[in-house]
Amino acid sequence: MLKRDHQVVLPTQARAPGFRVELKGTTFRLVATGAWTVAEAARLDRALKRLRVPLPPTPDFTGEMDIAGIAEIDTAGAMLLQRTAAAWEKTGLRTRYAGATEAFGILIEEVQRRGHAERPQVDRRKPLQFLTEDVTKALTGVWSDAVQLTAFLGEVTAGLGRMIRQPWRFRTTSFIHHLDHTGFRAVPIIALICFLIGAVVMQQGVVQLKPFGAEPFAVNMVAILALREVGILLTAIMVAGRSGSAFTAEIGSMKMREEIDAMRTLGIDPMDTLVLPRILALVVALPLLTFIGDLMGLAGGGVMAFAVLGLDASNYIDKLRDVVDFQHFMAGMIKAPFAAVIIGLVGCLEGLKVEGSAESLGTHVTSAVVKAIFLVIILDAVFAMFLSGIGV
Amino acid sequence: MIVENGQEVVIRVRGLAKSFGSHQIWDGLDLDVYRGEILAIVGGSGQGKSVLMRVITGLLRPDSGEVRLFGQNVKTISPQDRLDIERRWGILFQDGALFSALTVLQNIQVPMREHLNLPQAMMDDLAFLKLSMVGLPPNAAYKFPSELSGGMRKRAGLARALALDPEVVFLDEPTAGLDPIGASDFDRLIRKLQQTLGLTVYMVTHDLDTIFTVCDRVAVLAEKRIVRTGSPAELQHHPNHPWIQEYFCGERARAAAPGERPRIPA
């Protein structure tokens, strides 16, 4: 904002902007006063839009913007003056400024010079086009995701084959580190969640079966459910959220800072150092976590069975022994390594897809978790069909 | 309003102290910024140049000391007055700090939307005007920050800082990361805008070229305070301090000094 005089602080009423138009001889004059600043711009804009553009009766009429009464001006004010002057010019009034200080003159000239820039056209998409484009993009995205994931599975398998032939490529430290992070440190949360869900299912089972007098069968339900579905699903979902996202974030931030490019130039294969240790660690950790999840689910069910059915520990275990079969346990357990491979693959692949920006990292972490959980559930459904097909 | 030597003091800092943990960065720091000048804050790394900017703009609180903006003490100011003051300054962060979800045009209009109630057509006019003033082509308006180069992001950030025609502009390392041509263009732009808009410019910089070509005054941060202020030429000819000696009389400074290249006329 430019002030006419730096040292003078204007009283409020003198700040109020205003203008009037008068005809003096053959000159239309717009006499502006007060503070023509962005804070007052909305009011000035409205008033100036209402102003009728004077029509010169003969060509020798001129226009004048008298700004001697303006105390403060900024680009918004200058722009409004300029807009008015341009409108006057259009009707054939040659318009000039009067009463500008040097600083005001510089600003007005600058605004005048800049005001005529061509503006680019925005191409707005129609709603229908928007919809079809997005649907197409989503569908082709699913296809390309499937292709990429398959290709990556191939790469990882090839990398694993290479590692088996050249065992010194195996990164023990990295493997142990990830085993600790994805496995050991996940024990408390997975144990807690499985325990609670086991208890909740038992309690609901008893409530729902009571009208049929079948509440003792709630134990059967909990035992089968925990071993076949709940243990593995909860664990896999939890690990996808915890470790899948961590894989994407770690690898993605390395990709973002060009660390992965640096590795490649140093002759280090990111497959050996980053991807394989993570996936292998997960393949070891997830079955172990699932086992803990199974036990805790049964324990949760047991506690609730004692609370609502009055079944004590030895009776509960006897009952479990009758109901549970090794097949049930294995039907859950067999899914764990497959789920681990899916979570690891998706997490690492999404990390490698990250581009330069932090937003890209965020989107890929989100999509890693969503895709991993989705695929784990698909896997579970496929296994359920397969296992019931072979009668397990 | 504080007036000293016939000049209005827009920012006055007195006795500022700040420490992070056990590391004290300033103890009794004093600084005045006068209306209409371009002031550069220089100092070795870790002396708290950017922190000082953050304290003045209220992003960080000092441990003790006083900051007066436009004559008002920021500690005792009412929230309404605080808002009014925030409208009177613009800040350019190092990488522009543009909102990534908004286009450049929307970014420039954020302060207008937030503080004023302007019709959309007028905001568009103003935003395109600001865009042109900072030297960006009109087609940059509908781009997102991620589609711009570093130099363009800085210019767009400056356009946003200028959205409400502030009286004071804070620039954090305005030429860092720009190539020499881009940097000297930016220097020229700062001088030009300062003249047209009557800005007071507070800039944190390392760039000797910027200091010698556009800055009116330099304040040197060292030994936990401002050890000296003066024009770049004064500091170069009479350093009187080992750090200033090294900074203003080293090979790089000699190459950048005004004898070698003309100053952009004020």
Write up this protein.
The complex is a heterodimer of chains A (392) and B (266). Chain A is 69% helix and 9% strand. With 392 residues, chain A is α/β, with parallel strands linked by helices. Chain A has two domains: 2-114, STAS domain (Transcription Regulator spoIIAA); 169-389, no CATH class. In chain A, strands 1, 2, 3, 4 and 5 form a five-stranded mixed beta sheet that branches. In chain A, helix 8 packs across helix 11 (313-323). Chain A is elongated. The model of chain A has no long low-confidence stretch (mean pLDDT 89). In chain B, a hairpin with a 2-residue loop joins strand 1 and strand 2 (7-20). In chain B, 38% of the residues lie in helices and 26% in strands. In chain B, helix 3 (104-115) packs across helix 4 (120-133) and helix 6 packs parallel to helix 7. In chain B, strands 7-8-9-4-10-11 form a six-stranded mixed beta sheet, with helices on both faces. In chain B, strands 1, 2, 3, 5 and 6 form a five-stranded antiparallel beta sheet that branches. Chain B starts with a strand and ends in a 10-residue tail after the last helix. Chain B has two domains: 1-20 and 32-88 and 167-225, P-loop containing nucleotide triphosphate hydrolases (Rossmann fold, 3-Layer(aba) Sandwich); 95-165, no CATH class. With 266 residues, chain B is α/β, with parallel strands linked by helices. Chain B contains ten helices and eleven strands. The A-B interface holds A 1-3, 6-7, 9, 37-39, 41-42, 45, 74-76, 79, 83, 103, 106-107, 110-111, 114-115, 117-120, 122, 357, 359 and B 1, 3, 8, 35-36, 87, 100, 112, 116-119, 122, 125-126, 128-130, 132-133, 138-139, 141-142, 146, 162, 164-167, 195-198.
Q: What is the correct CATH architecture of the largest domain in chain B?
A: 3-Layer(aba) Sandwich
From the alpha carbons, calculate the radius of gyration of chain A and give it in angstroms. Answer: 37 Å
Rounded radius of gyration of chain B (Å): 18 Å
- Rounded to the nearest angstrom, the distance between the terminal CA atoms of chain B is 26 Å
Number of domains as seen in the coordinates of chain B: 2
Task: Report the sheet with the most strands of chain B, covering strand number, pairing sense and barrel closure.
Answer: 6 strands, mixed
